[in-house]
Structures are given as structure tokens and as C-alpha cells.
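Dear support,

We are seeing what looks like truncated structure output for some complexes. This example has four components. We would appreciate it if you could run it in full and send us the complete C-alpha cell output so we can diff it against ours.
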Amino acid sequence: MPRRIASGDGKPRPATIKDVARHAGVSVATVSRILSGTYPNAPATRSKVMRAVRELDYVANAHARGLAGVRPKSVAIVVNSVISPHYAHVAQGVHEEAARAGRLCIVGTTGGDLERELAAIQLMREEHAEAVILVGNINPDEAYRERMAGYARALAAAGSQLVLCGRPPLGPDVPAIVVEYDNTGGAFAATSHLLSAGHKRILFLGRRSGYTTPESRVAGYRAALAAHGVPHDPGLEVDGARMVRREGYRMMRERLDAGPRDFTAVFASNDLIAAGAREALRERGLRIPEDVSMVGFDDLPPAADIDLTTVYIPHEELGRTAVRLALKSETPGASEHVLLGTHIVVRDSVCPNVGEASGPD
Amino acid sequence: MPRRIASGDGKPRPATIKDVARHAGVSVATVSRILSGTYPNAPATRSKVMRAVRELDYVANAHARGLAGVRPKSVAIVVNSVISPHYAHVAQGVHEEAARAGRLCIVGTTGGDLERELAAIQLMREEHAEAVILVGNINPDEAYRERMAGYARALAAAGSQLVLCGRPPLGPDVPAIVVEYDNTGGAFAATSHLLSAGHKRILFLGRRSGYTTPESRVAGYRAALAAHGVPHDPGLEVDGARMVRREGYRMMRERLDAGPRDFTAVFASNDLIAAGAREALRERGLRIPEDVSMVGFDDLPPAADIDLTTVYIPHEELGRTAVRLALKSETPGASEHVLLGTHIVVRDSVCPNVGEASGPD
DNA sequence: AGCGCATGTTGAACCGTTTACACAGGGCGC
DNA sequence: GCGCCCTGTGTAAACGGTTCAACATGCGCT
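Here is the complete output from our reference environment:
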């Protein structure tokens, strides 16, 4: 039967620690200590207080507690969008680990806009979250680096740990924990998989100059070609705008419209691109893997549905690691760099090359 | 060049409003008023203060502000999981509308566990969020209703608006805004679509007794059968445990293993179930829509990939509406009930029935 | 008995804001 | 020239917790 304290005008008002103290016949200090559980206390007092808490349905005011110097038990995460599967999975990992540690999550979305990201960080700074986790791909020019470094230092000064998740470090003198995954290695493995099946003309779908994630994947692609002694044709690298399904469709469609097919395999920079490209191929009557081999990246839901060989990245583990490292470091200015592994997941989207499209020569 | 105030031991400490006041040569009240922007102030003072704010890189302490009686600009949302597409889309709507209104989002996840949901609400109560939005399916027994009603009243007393999103009202005397979507109507339309194509033996895949969402969908299914004068065979309703893909696979697989096929069409209680069932059918060499017609529910990503006719529900609109209504109501104890429409999305998963499987008679 | 010590409890200061109230000074009507 | 209002600013009291230093109390020891 939760009772509530009546103020002057009879409106219910949430009980405060003072109400509990009065109700239990002890001081506020005693109530505070018993509730925090970190000080010795007499069992009799303890049960009196707990009864008062129950009867008044008391919950502590997080603002008062935060103001009194107790770091709020919260973790902030800033993502591009909560719909995008990669971000959602990372966020899931963050939530899991945060829940395990009794923290709640503050989530900000940016829609990919840098200004909104910075604004979100500012808000998180006001909230004094224990950790601020920035996740995802970014286009790091010099101005960005400069401003972000300023924000990083401000967060450290405010006692919040900054974590960059799937994003390169800001610099040696900027305090931040960095949790990345191996884009280049994954792309190397994926490309090698196609090369081993005899493919030499491999379309790279979804290059995006200036953005770190697609660039690392291009780098792995090129490295694999070089390692296998296959000549690199820049004409096989197709630029994309946004890394979404319809963009994959558009790129493949335009490629097929532009002239005779000059590739036997496709390495899509992510699974959504792959799904879109697959649709464009199907419209031309080209089947995967019989006519065209394809490998994706991310191992997200569409991949299993369309039997796509792809590169698994530990989405949730990224989020979990971010939280774990952030909460572990008691000094908020910590710097650390972790690289999580990726590995190829083989499904049914690659066939041995029978050598039809051999390139423009 | 953000400067930071040095405390005794030389460690940087975030600037407070006092530092700003001292730096600008005015009182803290003046700084507060100028920053809040709601009081008259002299331009000269204003620019002095703004300069000090910039130079010290001052951001207000959200805890102090909250304690001083200003309702924090935040909205809390409690979901089952942030990966699940439906929840993610609702959350996206919440984020959008919250961002538009300058609010940040606190997100709690429950994993479908009622205790964790209640614990999350308790945390949100401590945080004094403007609104607490509970989203999703639930199994409402009497004990649940009782406890949740208590929490609802506590939230109202603390000045937070409770919103139930895609979940039935708690009762006439419990303060909450309810935003639902038309499950029954959508299921009626989906079933009617199959009936109109001549199907009479329609398998309902994914009944889950006690849970509100699947139950409303079953209700729509039965109503459509009745409206078309088609006899209702309870044996065609298959129970499911969790509403996920593998469960859809399992249900269909067991059904096919159990004996000769006694249905010509399937109404899956959501798209994931549909995708799983489709896989089981494919393993038996049964194609959609040539051999079996199928309709899903939700219109989430897998649906488009597998050309599934399904029922669209306004996921994001649910979230947006929840936030909009919650912020609109100035009195936190408001009650309201909104029902958003659903509609069928026709793709390529239904064929006219040629009348092979006619049932057990 | 007097002492030190461990154990529990209390009063009060403090955290950083907002805001009610007081007040200073200038312009204006009388 | 006096009182009045208006504008802008300052002073100080909340807000609801935590925690430090101080203080009772009971106990075993010398």
C-alpha cells in the first residue's frame, strides 16, 4: 500500500529522504547510509528504515544524488540511427553490458550529421554520464579532428570516459578508448575467398572516399589482389553515396546498363549493398552464385535470407567491450586501443569462375 | 581555446556558473537568467556573459538544474530489445520526435522480462523523465495489472507522463496515454485477402495465448473467417513460443512432418515467423506463392526481401505519436487512447487457390 | 574506576542551479 | 522635485541527496 506524503494543497508529492527519516524516527544521514549499504548499521534500525521506504514508496532523486557528487550510473551512446542493424546490434551489446552493471543507457541519434553528434556529446556532458560511446563510421577531416579533440578533453575533465567504437583514434594526446574491428583483414579474407575460386575481375561495390569504414574495406580488397598477383583495375571500384540497399541496387543497375559485364564476382562493402545489387542482377536474369559470385560484409539479417557469404563482425561484442573497458578504467582520461577480429561466414553465393568475363583487353 | 578552472591540486575541473559569473563580473543569477533567455537583460551584460561561457567552455550541470526544479528535458523508453526491428522502428520514431523537441532519450531494455521492466520504470522514476514510454506486447494477468497500476500512479505523482505503446490500457482509473495500432483490423484484412483468393484452409501460425498482440491478430483472423462464412477449424491455429524466425521454421516443419498438408495458405502472425515458415516450406520443395500462399504482419525488412504480402503497421508513427502526446499534455496524469490504422501491402506471395487441399473430411 | 576502542547515529556543510524578493537607478508625469 | 514604474541586477533560500567530523553508547581491558 504505497502511501504518499501530502503537501499543503493536498496534491501527492513523492516522498523524500526526509520523509523516510521522520517516518522511521531516525536522521536523514542514517537513511542515506543504510540505503547505500556501504556503512555499518544496526539490524533494528535497518529494518525500521526499510519498512518506511516501502510504506512511503520512496525512490531516491537521481538529480540530488548526482549533485551530491555521486557519479550517476548511466552510460551514453551516440549512434547514427537506431534502425540501422549494425548500430542496433552494437547498441544491444551496450545495453546488455550496461544492464549487467546496473547502469541505464542514454541514447542519442545523429542521422549521420556531425553537428548533431557534437550537440549530442554536449548534452551527454551535461548529464555527466560515466561513459560516452560514439559508434560508427565517420568522415574525419582536420576540422573534425580538432573539434572532437576539444570535446574529448572536456569530457575527460568532466569525468566521463570517451569511447570510440568502430572509428579510428583521434590522436595520441587525446584521451579516448578505441574499440575497432578488423575491416581490412575481413575485406582481405573476403576478396581472397573470391580469388581462390578463380575470380580475377571482382567488382568492389560501395567505395566511399573519406569515410573510414569503406576505405579500410577497399584497402583490404586491394591488398588481397596484390597478394594474389592479380592486377588492380580502378575501374572495378564503384563509388556509393549512402551505404543502403537502394544504393546497391542503383550502382549495380547503372553498371549493367553501362555496357557488357566485365566482372565475374562482386565484393559488396556491406550486406545491404549486396542485397540491392542482387536484386538488380536478378532483374537482368543473372543468378547468384551460378552467374555471378558475391560476398558481402557485416553478416546482418539480410545475409542469411539471401544465402550470402559475408564477413562476420562482432557487433554486440563491440558494444559490450566498449562498456566493459569504460567502466573498468577508474581514471576517466584513459586511452586504450582494442582491435576485435572478423571472420568470413561461408554460405551459398560463390561459385568457381569458369572464365567468361575476362576484362577489357 | 577552452580554458578550464584549476582547483587546488591543479586538476582541471569543469567550470560552474560561479566561475562564469566571476569571470564576467556579474552575479550567478544574472548568468542563469541570461542563459535561460527568459528574462530581460542588457545587451552589454549579455555579451560579457556569453564570452565568459565560451572562454570557460561552460555547460550547465543537468543534476543541479533538475534539482532546482526544472524538469529535465528527457524522454524514457522501455523496450524488449533494441535489435528487434519493430521495437527499433518505434524507438526511431521516439528519437526523432524527441530530438525535434530538444529532448534526449533514456532507453531501457527488458528482454521481455516483466521484473526487468518494472525495475526499469523504477530507474526512470529516479531520473524524473518527462515521459516514460512502455512499448510492446505483454502478458497482462491480474497481478501485473495491479502492480503496473501502482507504478503508473507513482509516475504521475512524480510528474512523469506514462505512455503505453502498442499495449492495452491498464484501466479507467489509471493515468496513462495509450497509443495502439489496429491489430485486429489488420489481421481481418490480411485474412480476407487470402479468402478472396479462394483459400478456405488458412493456417494461422504463431498464436500465443495470453499475449495481447498475437491474440488480437487471431481475433481478426477468426472474424474474417466468420464474415466470409468459412468454417473455423481450431486445428489450423498453431501455437508459438517466441515470435522469431526459427520458431516460424519449427512450427511449419512440425506441421509438415505431422501428416499430409491440410492448408493452402498461411497467415503468419509476423514477418519473421513468415520467413522461417517459408524456409521450412522450401526445404519440402514447396514454393510461395505457387504451392502455398502466405501473408505476414508488420512489414519489416524481411518482408520486402522475400516478396511477402503483409500488413503495414506505422511503427515510427507510434513512437512519434507517443512522444507528441506525452509532451503536449502539461498535466502529467493525462489519459488518452489513440488507435492508429494498419493496411495491407500487396507483394507477390498470394495465388488464387486451385482447390487441392480441401481439409479433413 | 578510568580508559580506549569499536559501533551507530547525528548535525551540518556542500554539490550547482533556479527563482522569489529586494533593490538601485533612470525616465517620466504630476 | 517628488513619487512611481520599469528595467536590470544582486542576495539568498530552496531543491534532495551524501558525507565528514563529532558525538553518544556499550564493552573489555588495565
